[in-house]
Write a sequence for this structure.
């Protein structure tokens, strides 16, 4: 069971990395911009 989870995690990370390198520069900037805002989202919308 543990090895299946590790394998799934490894495959997911590899797929995300492959997907990241196929994105154009504009989409990468957009995703990075969204990722920088994630820490403040709970405080902004759930307070």
């Amino acid at each position: 069971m543990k090895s299946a989870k590790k394998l799934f995690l490894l495959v997911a990370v590899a797929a995300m990395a492959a997907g990241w390198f196929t994105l154009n520069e504009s989409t990468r900037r957009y995703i990075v911009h969204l990722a920088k805002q994630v820490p403040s989202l709970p405080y902004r919308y759930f307070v």
Residues 38 and 44 are 10 Å apart (CA to CA). The mean pLDDT is 90.
